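Lab notebook, bench 4. Continuing the backlog of folding jobs that were queued last week. Each job is logged with the same field layout so the records can be merged later without manual cleanup. Today's entry covers Cellulose synthase-like protein D1, a 1036-residue chain. Filled in by technician R.K.

JOB TYPE: sequence-to-structure
TARGET: Cellulose synthase-like protein D1
LENGTH: 1036
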Amino acid sequence: MASSPPKNTLNSQPSSSLTPPPQAVKFTRRTSSGRTVSLSRDYDMDVPGEYSSSSGHNDYIDYTVLMPPTPDNQPAGSSSASASTSHSKPDGSSKTGNKMERRLSVMKSNNKSMLLRSQTGDFDHNRWLFETNKGKYGIGNAYWPENDDDGEGGVSMSDFLDKPWKPLTRKVKIPAKVLSPYRLLIMLRLVILFFFLWWRVTNPNEDAMWLWGLSIVCEIWFAFSWILDILPKLNPINRATDLATLHDKFEQPSPSNPTGRSDLPGVDVFVSTADPEKEPPLVTANTLLSILAVDYPIEKLSAYISDDGGAILTFEAMAEAVRFAEYWVPFCRKHDIEPRNPDSYFSIKKDPTKNKKKQDFVKDRRWIKREYDEFKVRINGLPEQIKKRAEQFNKREELKEKRIAKEKNGGVLPPDGVEVVKATWMADGTHWPGTWFEPKPDHSKGDHAGILQIMSKVPELEPVMGGPNEGALDFTGVDIRVPMFAYVSREKRPGFDHNKKAGAMNGMVRASAILSNGAFILNLDCDHYVYNSKAIKEGMCFMMDRGGDRICYIQFPQRFEGIDPSDRYANHNTVFFDGNMRALDGLQGPVYVGTGCMFRRYALYGFNPPRANEYNGVFGQEKTPAMHVRTQSQASRMSESSDLESDTQPLSDDPDLGLPKKFGNSTIFTDTIPVAEYQGRPLADHMSIENGRPPGALLLPRPPLDAPTVAEAIAVISCWYEDNTEWGDRIGWIYGSVTEDVVTGYRMHNRGWRSIYCITQRDAFRGTAPINLTDRLHQVLRWATGSVEIFFSKNNAIFATRRLKFLQRMAYLNVGIYPFTSIFLVVYCFLPALCLFSGKFIVQSLDVHFLSYLLCITVTLTLISLLEVKWSGIGLEEWWRNEQFWLIGGSSAHLAAVVQGLLKVIAGIEISFTLTSKASGEDEDDVFADLYVVKWTGLFIMPLTIIVVNLVAIVIGASRTIYSVIPQWSKLFGGIFFSMWVLTHMYPFCKGLMGRSGKVPTIVYVWSGLVSITVSLLWITISPPDDVTGSGGISV
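JOB STATUS: finished
OUTPUT FIELD FOLLOWS
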């Protein structure tokens, strides 16, 4: 065979003399010496520099592709290729020759599939790369591996032969045409505010210095409060999940998972309740049914309910719910029911047969509806049934005691009679270990034993298909398994601080770790049910995605049902959930709001994230890796004795695990910690995944529950277990605040974790909210009281670590500061009235400077609000309702919270604002009847005073100006304008006081009269009228 010029040979190898066909695409490769050679047998092509052709024949459509050598694109023939097997590197080593020999030996292989040609007859290069393990998939490209080890060791890319790696989530950025003007307007308003405040300070009102001073202080505080609120909103983002990719990665057959069994981690769902009278058992039962029917691997899901009241009514209601779930859960799976809360499902107004393809749906729905109606009757009849049962058993015990007494007393009853304890009995004829109807020692609220009952056993690993006659329903081909469910009521004894809801949640954390040990924990209130059956999978997309090992929790937005159409008191709170929380997701993550949150169990235990950053500088602009967080390479060097990589093995050498006193004295519990950490790691299916686990690691079944395991779970919910531990201080839900949710999330962020805000297309969860004015104000009072406690505690963001981003720190600082705005807000609401009473104004005169600044501030605020409405997706009416209730709540509940917090900090006095009178709805058939109920409370005093004082001031100011010799209309209009601003914001409050009929309650008239008389007398004392008899100026 002839040789071609050495210029176009591979290390001067002889090449084929065959005439190359004309082609537009030229292939080249780089040799070990750095030269570029042609693989297209185009001998006229010269490849200097960046592979540009220098020959005369250079068509504009010709281009060059750089690719590695394969058996079919070698310049040499098979004979010469086999002869030339020794190629030296510049340093004289023969490593390159050995590699080339292995590569060219493929030509001698009899594996026809490896040399499979494409439909055009050309060699399939991509197929060859994958089948020989010579290529690795990136995102849209294949490249030559640096070290050739023939694909041995690690995860084989053949597992993903036909499916390139895909992320489970993606960020959806806010359009720049919305976000850029939004940020620009914020900066512009900051500048305008600075100049306005400077002008206000340098131009005092000499005629009314006290009005000027009060207004200046309030305006400076409002500017500071606005900055704390608006700056964390500079980087809002949206996120999207890919459930199809999640299914392909974790629930499809693969070499590491031949059966296609789910490789997803376990999830434990917590529901908390305390009083069946305030939280009806039927509501809690519907929440439980929606949890048991979620679309998640049945063997990986466990549900727990914490009954902190130890009520037998809740216990038996949950038992009834589990029995009904045996039909409801398969029915939902068979017909793909949404939502899976039966009460909400049967209340839907739309056509239930829409998108239902199975012919027996109508028959099945009619039957299950009838069963649910009977289920509700049984639940509602439980109180009477339990009381009758207790009376029967108590009478039997009384007769037994009388018979024994007669036998001991010669057939005669003792003169003092027989005393029998009035107990509460279970259906099996034993005493209920929790709270009795007639409280006794060891059986009262705050004094009862711990209770743990497995009501639904651990499901089998393999699906259990139903038959044609499953309770008159045909469940053929439907998995009829039900997830595990446990009823938990922790032990309570006098003298112990049980820490309310936070203590109950920590008890469930420990019990669930021993029973199921799900790597993730979903926390729901008893009135928040699963509205989207795929919600858990949506959250799991973030936890299992690249970088998911740094996420401590996924917060879902709160959505509410039963709110009046006008949302009079801003119960939906969309400005916070769709605005503030979405913006925080662009920083370090949203705050934890108490429900609808999926936690990483390992993060709840108080450990640091696997990777964290520290933010130095005045504004946290210098980002550096946290030094004392162990990196994976450091971990590998520390475990040299291990042959396996540390990032594929359970974490068992964390220093906190060597101190069991921090977690308690249960070794079984401490042994579950590294297991939960390992199972919560993302899948190591890509080279960019850090701290991952191999595919197929979570396919083994859970061990069955035995008596010692359940006994240990009961032991860890005892009231003494947390003594001398860090539960509530560093571990679990944090104690010491009414709003334990915010503090718990803050501690995690402070350690370097981040959180994610997951807004699903279909609402993930839905719940109820108080629509009555009094109930709504008391709810806001509790939140504000918790914020004041945070401000005066070590959880104040001022003391945060450097792992908290600067803007995230500002957001948490605002959480503790916002109730104090009420002090300045109340003063500012009285300023218009004071201006009208005195005939003065906050400025010397309404000159062009003041009006120009006021116009600019108002216009920029309006534009900012419109753009915020645009990127957050909320409505203008929702934004306005939020503004109105900000003033109503700020002048009532927030002010009361500040007073309560200051008294608690300074004097140690606890004040509880409770209802003083209650009324019932006028129309029981009206869904919104509670909206019109008037329940007087002390929180009404301040808003009502503001309204009355401003109304009286308008009348007095108008009268003075009209009958004045020299009327000052500008000051009157300025005062009336600001008074109307206050009264417009108070309009929902006035409607709440009037009730359904629009009649003002008598107490409002009485209070208005008292306020009017008091204000008039006070003003006459302060500013008595001039000693003038008439307008002629004649003195008496």
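OBSERVATION: The longest helix spans residues 176-202.
SIGNED: R.K.
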